Amino acid sequence: VLRGPAAARYGSGAAGGVVNIITKKVTNETHGSVEFYTSQPEDSKEGSSNRVGFNVSGPLIKDVLSYRLYGNYNKTEADDVDINKSIGSTAAGREGVKNKDISGRLAWQATDQQTVLLDISSSKQGNIYSGDSQLNANAEADAILSQLIGKETNTMYRDSYALTHEGDWSWGKSKLVAQYDKTHNKRLPEGLAGSVEGKINNLDDKATSRLETLRFNGEANIPFEYYLPQVLTVGTEWVEDRFKDNVSTTQGKDSSGSGYGDQLAKGDRSKMESRIASAYIEDNLKVTDSTDVVLGLRFDDHSKSGSNWSPSLNITQKLNDNFTLKGGVAKAYKAPNMYQNAEGYLLSTNGNGCPANIESRCLLQGNGDLKPETSVNKELGIQFQRDIVNASLTWFRNDYKDKIVAGTHVVGTVDGSSTNANTGAVTNTKWNILRWENTPKALIQGFEGSLGLDFGDIRWTNNFTYMMDSKDKQTGNPLSLVPIYTINSIFDYDITDQLDVNFVFTQYGRQKSRQFAENRLESGIGSGGANSALKPSTVKSYSTAGINVGYKFSDQISTRVGVSNLFDKQILRDSNSISQTYNEPGRAYYASLKYSF
After folding, report:
1. Is the domain defined by 4-88+96-596 classed in CATH 2.70.98.10?
2. What is the pTM of this model?
3. Alpha-carbon gap, residue 399 to 471, rounded angstroms
4. First to last CA, the chain
5. What is the C-alpha to C-alpha distance for residues 366 and 270, in angstroms, rounded to an integer?
6. Which of 546, 591, 550, 559 is nearest to 38 (CA)?
7. Which of 266, 271, 272, 235 is nearest to 253 (CA)?
8. Least confident span in 16-25, 104-113, 370-379
9. Where are the domains of the chain?
10. 3-class secondary structure for 150-217?
């Protein structure tokens, strides 16, 4: 996991950090495992989970051609449709999910220095509908939604193909990757505006959105010494996305092609595409035995939002045998997504969702002239390590500029008048046009730390995050609904070589909702009047705990059983709250059984 300035060289979307997933390598001997997992909640209204997975790896031609195969099936049942009724809420509980994955790899050792990898994977994920709709309609009382409870209303299919060449040369290491991903999202259509927004309105005809992504990446790592020992990394990347969405681009469309949506964007509104071409360089310098410096620079050119330079500097200074000082600063970057750039993508509101200073209907239109979001990420931390103790404390600050938000300024109007085909009556409608825009500034700032004690058979690991600031400087509202602090603590005890026990504890600080109204409804001047005005709320601090025990019957067979949310701290989603927006599951019992060979 790379966070802060160290993540900047990974390009668009890396402002908040990057997770590098390192998969298991193929093996020259046959190895594998099969694992079963189940989780059964104590509350019968919560959905249970069952999962089975396998992986196997070995040689097809020893020392030349090897393989790895992985598969997984998971099913989590949906919460009951009335799980939140006890607090007077019509909000749905958690949706269920059915997931199937299979992936394979062939590894060809072409020479002692060169390896060629072929990766192919396929997955299917479908939901189990629990009654969710954007405005929390009562699913049990709705003629359409009530028929869908427990059924699959959207299905995601994803296929991926990748070819990789890895070289280990006398001058360094190289890696070339070509990857193609294809994703299809089939879902029942939903309302696009007003009181039916986000609510499924058709039982039969699923529509399909299609995304294709082509990615090329080349990278070389070159160790050398020129005044100082160093490792130079140079790379280039090309990412191209092509998206066709017949579902979310029909607002203002009619059969004649003269609807207000067709007036605002010509051609096929359902087609969107983007391209990012990038190059980067990073130099890891060993300045002294106690000082490491990493200099980086990345250039990105986006087909819509233009070019961006992202420099970075990270320093590690060992103060003595126990203390190490770390600091960094970098400019991070995020390109607009395809919806935000597409002029044919329209969101509409009949008035309640408009900014408070606009009285009639509004359209939010994609904007091809958006600037990319950027942020200057800084961090400064100290680490202490001695004998059994490993501790750290880090300050971080991200100053955002040009963050992309829904616009509040009217840039034009469009005639949305329509004629009733049966009566001939004409409805005169004018829409105010807003566009996605760049807001001046936003800020995230806080501290994170860790404390670990390792006694050998007994280990105690702790980490915390404290958020000092998380706000949009234009509205004053938080950027996201997160706890003011989070503390995680894990106590591990290896009782014997076969038996171990783990205690897990998490403490969440209070979570504050938006404090300032952002539309007519929240301002108390929409159709709901003062009753619909924004009522700031807070989720109070709470904690969860768990315990699990693992046992190895042999080198091949192991098991683990446990209890999550041991003290049954359950939180239910409230349809009348803008902070209590999720369900925290109650106590559950889980077990796994693994066979390795």
Report:
1. no
2. 0.89
3. 10
4. 30
5. 13
6. 591
7. 266
8. 16-25
9. 4-88+96-596
10. CCCCEEEEEEEEEEEEEEECCCCEEEEEEEEEEEEEEECCEECCHHHECCECCCCCCEEEEEEEEEEE
